[in-house]
Design goal:
rod-shaped, about 40 residues, mainly alpha, transmembrane helix, membrane, transmembrane, Morphogenic membrane protein MmpB, about 70% helix
Length: about 40
């Protein structure tokens, strides 16, 4: 690791997109669980 190496930080847009995708993934998982519960009740 040289002192002249650029920071390993991704740009802000990329981090925002990753956060959004993570939230979407959580929402999708919750929706799937809810759907399974509803289908199981019917």
């Amino acid at each position: 690791m040289l002192w002249s190496d650029p920071e390993n930080e991704p740009p802000k847009e990329l981090r925002d997109m990753q956060d959004m995708l993570r939230r979407l993934g959580v929402l999708m998982a919750l929706a799937m669980v809810l759907a399974m519960i509803v289908l199981g009740i019917m």
